[in-house]
Amino acid sequence: MAVNRRTSRDIRSESRLTVMRALLAAGESTRNRLAEDTGLSIGTVSTVVSDLLKHGIITETGQVGGSIGRPTTGLRPNADRGRVVGVYVDVEEAYLAAKVYDAELGELALAEATIDEGLDDADTVIHGIERVLGAALERARANRDDVLGVGILLPGGTRRPVKVPVAAPNAIWLHLDRLRDRLGLPVVVENPLKAKATAELWLGAGRRRTNIVTVTLGIGVGAGIVQDGVLTRGSSDSAGEWGHTLFTFDGRLCRCGRRGCVEAYLGADGIRQTLAEIAPGHPLAAEPGRRRFLEALAESPGREAADTVERTAHYLGAALTDLVALVNPEVITLSGWTARFLGERMLPIVRRRVAEESPGDAAADLAIEISSLSDPGMTGIAAVALERFMRDVGLVTTRMLPAI
Asked: Rounded CA gap, 145 and 51, in Å?
């Protein structure tokens, strides 16, 4: 059996990412302050800073310091090093979006497109990605030569297509080489769960903690897991499919074909079913759009809608308790449509249930909160693209990134 051992190269790679994330969080810093913020030695920080300066990832800002003590050189991320692009593909809604970021992960421009004929085959998806990417670069006034990397946000696995009958562009997973050739740019592909966890690690809860879980609640349900500052991928890059763990034996039929999955109770269709059980024939249950259904549920003043939200909160608290027992995170962040529209109303019940039912001290210092990031999926895939660029120039090892 192969054993993954951390080499000195891995440790140095992790130190570079740690310093980069700390500098992004601070905006501007110094070598000494970075050492304090990261817990790394000043010698390690100085070596890492030299590496990042060499490749233009960060830049010096001149002398900083107060009236007491020796002035020192300021550092900040080099936003003008290039551009990274995040691309989102929503197969069910036949919707694509591309967002351009600078190398400091600051948003520059957004382009969106809806494909009338749907996204049913690889050629259509590839053409759509190419079109929306070009539109976003034009709006950002960026040349293709400026692009350090493109991150594609796709559901499913990063090595092979998903095996369950859910809506996912499986054909694209089989044609990634064609996509790269068509775009003519460095491309990395990631699924939403891991992209959102990466966003929290770079710009969200991961700035303050090293063991986090970011839970996505929308059409589907899943969890991105970061342990000791490193994204958990699993042996086949499929870790995080919490939505397809068992919530109740022989329960509701899930989209994956199994009965009783977490997603069957916490996905948008599951919440709709809960409303139908509480109030058969309720007009909201007939709302065809999943996003609109959740938004309307949040706006409804009726007792049946309130009971649906409350029961969903109890389901979520119970399901999160299992996650807490397994990975013992410091913080759980909630994102997705359900978190956006219903999260604040559900949080008191969720927190109370997790605190009461988690084993031992697993939840003693646990924070459960709505993600502070406005677009964690897109931000996360842009961060993955930036990591990919750092890998390509030799600053980061492949162990940190998708295996494609």
From this structure: 23
Same domain, 214 and 335: yes
Q: Furthest-apart CA pair in the chain: how many Å?
A: 73
Distinct helix (H) and strand (E) counts, the chain: 13, 12
Handedness of CA 370, 372, 378, 382 (dihedral sign): negative
Residues of the chain with pLDDT under 70: 1-6, 65-71, 117-119, 156-174, 398-404
- Please, which residues have CB within 8 angstroms of residue 138's CB and are 6 or more apart in sequence? 111
Regarding whether 142 and 266 lie in a shared domain, the answer is no
This prediction's pTM: 0.86
Among 46, 77, 108, where does a domain finish?
77
> Where in the sequence is the domain holding 334, given as residue range(s)?
207-372
Q: What is the pLDDT of residues 143-196, one digit of tens each?
A: 999 999 999 988 764 444 444 334 444 556 567 788 888 999 999 989 899 999
- In what helix (H) or strand (E) does residue 312 lie, and over which residues does it extend? helix 303-327
Q: How far apart are CA 243 and CA 261, in angstroms?
A: 6
129 shares a domain with 54:
no
Out of 18, 48, 77, a domain closes at: 77
Other beta carbons less than 10 A from residue 139's beta carbon: 15
Rounded Cα distance between 231 and 224, Å, is 8
User: What is the residue whose two structure tokens read 């677009």?
Assistant: 375
